[in-house]
Amino acid sequence: MRRLLQKLFSGTVIRLANKYSSRPDALRVHEALTALYNRIQQQPGVRGLILDLKHTDKIIILSDQHKGTRNNSDDFSSSEPSYLAALHYYNEQEYIYCNLGDSEELWKNQLFGVLSSNTATFEAEKCFIQRKAFIKIFGNHDLYWDNDPLAWFQLNRIYGENLKVYEGAIFRFSIANTPLSIFLTHGHQGDLQSDGNWFSKWFVSNVWAPFQSFLSINPNTPAYDNQLKSAHNSIMYSWTAKQSNLALITGHTHQPVFNSLTHLERVYLKLDEARINGDKTTTQALEAELLAGKVSGESSPRIDNSKNTYFNSGCCCYSDGDITGIEIGEGMIRLIKWKTNEGDTRRILLEEASLELLLDSKLNP
């Protein structure tokens, strides 16, 4: 019976979940991003960190694990092997780890259940804390870390030391003798359905979670095209387009974006180029990737094809067990995927560009 209901309702449920999960408003989003960015600059260490980074520093940015309690509504459990393998790699390579929010799914679950069900992942994160290389940013699904008076106690219990959780961070680089700032935040700011909205939390906890658990539905399908997510990304991009030598990295939408283009669009661009060049091997590989539905996204957040200033890390809870993230290091920025197949996990480079391309002086023609 459950399989029959899954077949009948999965598509409809996923469409409804995506349709009503986000209600971005451009003015609210822009005002919220500006307010947070200015506050971090004016009062560093209160709502966010400012880090002056060197060319040799390496950073991994992962978001949206949505760690649950190992029941049928736990979107993270299938991605845990990829996540643990990734953290092991990045810790050994001495990366700074920026967790960009919604790490714990606290709309559907009580904190105790999440903590007891994810011991291995918290231990892996603790390795970065011991190296003073962990930045934790809260999102709308783990807002607990910002507003609960006992959050500090729980963080100390999890990680063995005091840990400040921020709303954002600013990474500052000197690229080609030019200052470049990268602003990081979860991305729910100004979203009417996510930014402190009690009804969304109530609906997810009391209606959606039980229904999802019964049907064992994970809505984070990599190939799912969603206009509202792209609309949200477009709003984020339009804010960065007004800034100078500033890039923005968010999560929240679960939709990877690189240089202001969704990963799906970039695959189509590569496919067009391969067809023009008569590269049959690449053409067949890209066509197979599209057919398999292993990319996500729909329309571009880019407005005028002029700036490479918006990035989205995707998520760590795709239904196929993959995770995506953003790497920064050695003067480069990369979109990567970690994939586990029959117990073997590997890192896959999806996109790569020089940080110089983020500067105003390197605008696209």
Q: Describe it for me?
A:
By secondary structure, this protein is of the alpha/beta class. The protein has eleven helices and 14 strands. The strands form three sheets. The protein has a seven-stranded mixed beta sheet with strand order 5-4-3-2-12-13-14, with helices on one face. Strand 6 (168-175) and strand 7 (178-185) form a beta hairpin. Helix 3 packs parallel to helix 5 (119-130) and helix 10 (263-276) runs antiparallel to helix 11 (280-292).
Q: From N to C, what is the helix and strand string?
A: HHEEHEHHEHHEEEHHEEEHHEEEE
Task: Count up the helices.
Answer: 11
Radius of gyration: 20 Å
Largest sheet: 7 strands, mixed
Give the spatial strand order of the biggest sheet: 5-4-3-2-12-13-14
Identify the overall geometry.
globular
Distance between the termini: 56 Å
State the total count of DSSP E strands: 14
Sheet-strand content, in percent, reads: 15-25%
Structural class by SSE content: alpha/beta
Question: What level of helicity do the residues show?
Answer: 25-40%
Annotation keywords:
single chain; 365 residues; alpha/beta; 7-stranded mixed beta sheet; 5-stranded mixed beta sheet; 38% helix
Element layout with pairings:
Blueprint: H1 2-20, H2 26-42, E1 48-52, E2 59-62, H3 80-92, E3 96-99, H4 111-117, H5 119-130, E4 134-137, H6 144-147, H7 151-159, E5 165-166, E6 168-175, E7 178-185, H8 198-215, H9 227-240, E8 246-250, E9 257-258, E10 261-262, H10 263-276, H11 280-292, E11 310-312, E12 323-329, E13 332-341, E14 344-354
Parallel strand pairs: 1-6, 2-3, 3-4, 4-5, 7-8, 8-11
Antiparallel strand pairs: 2-12, 6-7, 9-10, 12-13, 13-14
Helix pairs in contact: 2-9, 3-5, 10-11
